[in-house]
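Work Package 3 (structural annotation) set out to generate three-dimensional models for the target panel prioritized at the project kickoff. During this period the team completed the workflow that converts sequence records into discrete structure tokens, so that structures can be stored uniformly alongside our sequence database. As a representative example, we reproduce one entry of 363 residues exactly as it appears in the project archive.
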Amino acid sequence: MNAWPTALALLAALLFGAATPASKWLLDSLTPFQLAGLLYLGAALGAGPAVLLRGGRGRIRLPGRADRRNRVRLLGAVVLGGMVGPVLLLLGLRLAAAASVSLWLNFEVAATAVIGILIFHDHLGSTGWAGVGAALAGAALLSLGGGSAGLAAAVLVLLGCVCWGFDNHLTALIDGITPAESTFWKGLFAGTTNLAIGLALDPLGGGAGGGGGSGGGGAVAVLAALFVGIWSYGASIVLYISSAQALGATRAQVAFATAPFFGVTLSALVLGESLGLVHLVSGLLFVAGIGLLTAERHAHLHEHEALEHEHAHGHDDGHHAHGHEGFGAVAAGSHSHRHRHEAVVHAHPHWPDLHHRHGHGGG
């Protein structure tokens, strides 16, 4: 019964993982700013049609004008996740092999967890911290063999992962628009800005970044970058959301966590990069880290204040018991609409999510 949504999550992971070796090839013709801009404009192109068709709305929403908090969150996601993070990744990719960068991208999970502790009132127990340590060990091991260039590349990619960690939290807190709509706006605004910066610094067809000579190769590179963005960033996100709606976020995320390993495989098969023992050991450390972070759970008595908001949700999580006219007591599957939560105090094992952003007293 879960075979099809699992396949969707794995396909999303394959498409996203392919972005790293594809970007390595495209950096021969485009600067990091140009490529980052084109990839995210492609993401907007990939996500736009799915959002327009969803529910027959025929429009793509921004948070309401009165909803200042969500607009600030979306702006932060655009700047950190759509502008700064991709450029840092591509700067690191110029210095290191695509296989190494693919494995370093596993650090995003650990970065998200640590940022949650330091800023967003999340909780991380000993299991989770062990996962963070394993991810750091994997990143450090992989950077040692590359000398100063390898260290610089690792730092750039890890900083990019930190930006995406912030992006993950900010996007999760946006409750006025869907994840696909967030992807569209992030791609449109961030892509346009980075592309404009890239063209101002180095016009296509000339300089260090324009490997296209008189512009012919540049045009091919532009189309190729948009194509990669449509599939690896736009379609991949839409497929992942579709999978998460059927499987649940946790199972879908576990399947999607294979993306860096697809990137490693494609780097070896398509780019001809060699893989050694260090890649194997580092990969195992990252797998252990992700597994430990995924296994992290905690439970305690906590209070939810009365709240009205809109976000994608199901009715099997203990927080969404409201009825739906025409659907009986509850509506089946994941869906999005404005709904109200009454105040409640209860205890249950939980992840930090949109409904669990609370402090923990002494622990």
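The radius of gyration is 21 Å.
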